[in-house]
Amino acid sequence: MKTKILNRFFMLLMATFVLSCSDDDDNGPDQMEADPMMIELNIVETAQDTESVSILVAALAKADESASNDLITTLSDETTNFTVLAPTNDAFADLLARLDGFDSLDDFNTEQLQNLLATVLTYHVVGGAAVASSALTEGQVITTVQGEDLTVSLSGGVYFMDAAGETAQVTLADVETTNGIIHLIDKILLPQAAIDALSDVLLSSITDLAIATPTLSNLVAALQAADGDLPAVLAGEGPFTVFAPTDDAFATFLSDNGFASLSDVPVDILTQVLLNHVISGAIYSTDLTAGYISTLSTAGVGGNNLSMLVDLSDGVTLNGNSSVSAADAKALNGVVHIVDAVIGLPNIVDHAVANSDLSELVGALTADGNTTFTTLLSDTETDFTVFAPVNAAFTAFMNPNTNDLNTILSNHVIAGAAAFSSGLTNSYVTTAATNADGDNISMYINTDDGVTINGVSTVAAADIVATNGVIHAVDAVIDLPTVVTFAVADPNFSTLVSALTELTPATDFAGILSRAEGGNTDGINPDFTVFAPTNAAFEALAEIPGEDVLTQVLLHHVVAGANVRSTDLTADGDTMATTLEGDSMTITLPGTGDHKADVTDGAGNSDIGIIAVDVQANNGVIHVLNKVMLPDTMN
After folding, report:
1. Which of 20, 302, 309, 626 has its CA 20 to 30 A from that of 191?
2. Cα 475 to the center of its chain, rounded Å
3. 623 CB-near residues (< 8 Å, 6+ apart)
4. Secretion signal: which residues (predicted)?
5. Distance (Å, rounded) from C-alpha 321 to C-alpha 250?
């Protein structure tokens, strides 16, 4: 790399000065004042006495290390006059940022580089005359000592245009010396000779890089047509990583979407599609990792940034359909990777299809030509949250309860809301799955340690953002829950679980309440309506009774053979139900205070409240109590 650059030109050298002399940058150009004392000094002495051009002085000295150059002696000659355009330290710093491959002035240690430096420096010198700013005219062409021309512009100030068409503004004019005049400028001017030599070294902005690449003309046109002045954005500070589609990629995109030309693409969509190719930060191919990254497109649900899947299994593939064909085109403000396909705005189905680790899920969703799920999850009018089992989860799932697979899949979908991990709390949500009665099944989310679903499935990759929702990849299939599933998963019921298991070993409460089929010989058949006391409810008891009494107490909290939801209760009045223990309980609407409903137990206690309703399982429903119900001990 270094040898190649050495054979090119000086530009890199200039850059180095900035780093080596950066401590001098604190002093502005106004230090070089045209007072009478200054006129006692020649051009070189004046520059040496001015901190804001100290890097220029260092550059002259570095160029003179070559036996071919003697710039300091020449510019000190009192027998002739010069006009010098003196770049400030900041101008050198700006140039250094554009140069790739050198870090300090010490790297420029050959005559070739030193001669290149002299080429650039002499492009800032006019020999034989001290030209004051007042003598300049609009459009005037000035031939420099280097041999190439500069063009003058006087619109809004005094400017000099170089061979690249870039302009340097005079920030301090007419500093007189004994052998000429100095004008301080804010940018280093480049002759064509230096530009040609530095074609692989001198960095441009992402926008300029795209403009200079013939196969990206459609991208440039699209950037110009989009909202938000994207050419200016991608020429800005950044840094950015841009995955740049070729002209052929754009042609395919237009054809596939029924557009005759770029002008037919709605501007808002075009803007978001382009932003979906841009990542914050400069990410080179060697730094890319497999997984999801966020693009600058805000077409994600709720205005969130869309996710992009990076697949490194065979080169670099993005969202499953766009491959990097040329990587790591370094720009001044980031890096560009050329891609062979336009990256569209993915919905949930697109993301699932693109991710090879969700192939079993996609296969299950589309088995036997089923399009129900793909149609549903492509809906643009509804937001979704999908807990997507990875392939290993499907491999491990044996469907122990022989539940309908489509219903199981629906149990991974929340319709009507996009729930991001940052907004999740310990709570129940409603899935798209339904029980035999058509009631939507609940899901319990626990965030005490990561995100766990129904106590059995953990989120492994969160917040994959699509246009119509969000995906969370999970490590286990979420089977249809029983009422036992929720009791075990919810830490608020840990005492109830203990009572149902270790404190009552003679009764298989867990087995009974996990039943999904009727026709049991003991007559205890689902559905079950369970009134579940919280831990606090058990703590309010003077003591937890022994097994025989506790068994009856627990049976008094279960109604078998019915899925009694809050909507099934008498709206303004009493609803009576017989429990497995044998006594009846009474539910009264409306409840008092914070109670959803009031409950009178078999013992006649009427200060019991239902504080949460309709936790719906596949084999029944749970309502949460703030006190433990007691049966009638006298019957």
Report:
1. 20
2. 23
3. 529, 530, 531, 532, 566, 596, 610, 612, 613, 614, 615
4. 1-20
5. 14
E strand spans, 449-525: 452-453, 457-466, 469-474
SS (H, E, C) 259-284: CCCHHHCCHHHHHHHHHCCEEECCCC
Nearest-angstrom CA–CA distance, 296 and 309: 14
- pLDDT for 256 equals 96
| CA nearest neighbour of 600 among 499, 513, 591, 535 | 591
Residues 6+ apart with CB under 8 A from 457: 387, 389, 393, 474, 475, 476, 477, 478
pLDDT at 103: 63
Q: Where are the alpha helices (DSSP H) in 483-545?
A: 483-489, 494-500, 509-513, 535-539
Please state, in angstroms and rounded to a whole number, the distance separating the CA atoms of residues 499 and 551: 8
CA-CA distance, 242 to 210, in Å (whole number)?
10
Question: Nearest Cα to 198, choosing from 12, 3, 66?
Answer: 12
The token pair that represents 122 in the structure block? 């002499």
Under-70 pLDDT residues of the chain? 1-38, 102-108, 635
CA 32 → CA 20, 44, 54, 182, distances in Å?
Answer: 22, 12, 11, 9
Strand partners, 587: 575, 599
CA distances to 87, 136, 172 from 131, rounded to whole Å, are 17, 8, 14
pLDDT score at 633:
78
Residue whose C-alpha is closest to residue 485's, from 403, 569, 415: 403
How far apart CA 391 and CA 117 sit, in angstroms, is 60
**Residue 144 phi, psi dihedral angles, 5° rounding:** -90, 170
Instruction: Say how many Å lie between the first and final Cα of the chain, rounded.
Output: 96
Q: Is 524 helix (H, G, I), strand (E, B) or coil?
A: coil
**What pLDDT sits at residue 6?**
36
> Which residue in the block uniquely carries the two structure tokens 């002209």?
247
CA–CA distance, 603 with 67 (Å, rounded to integer)? 110
Local structure of 203: helix, strand or coil: coil
Q: SS3 string of 584-602? A: EEEEEECCCCCCCEEEECC
Q: Which of 239, 383, 238, 379 is nearest to 303 (CA)?
A: 383
Q: Which of 219, 230, 209 is nearest to 330 (CA)?
A: 209
- Neighbouring CB atoms inside 10 A of 212's CB total 11
Task: Return the pLDDT at 106.
Answer: 67
Per-residue confidence (pLDDT) for residue 102, from 0 to 100? 65
- Residue whose tokens read 């044998």: 582
Neighbour-count burial of 173, counting CB atoms closer than 10 A to its CB (0-12 exposed, 13-18 middle, 19+ buried): middle
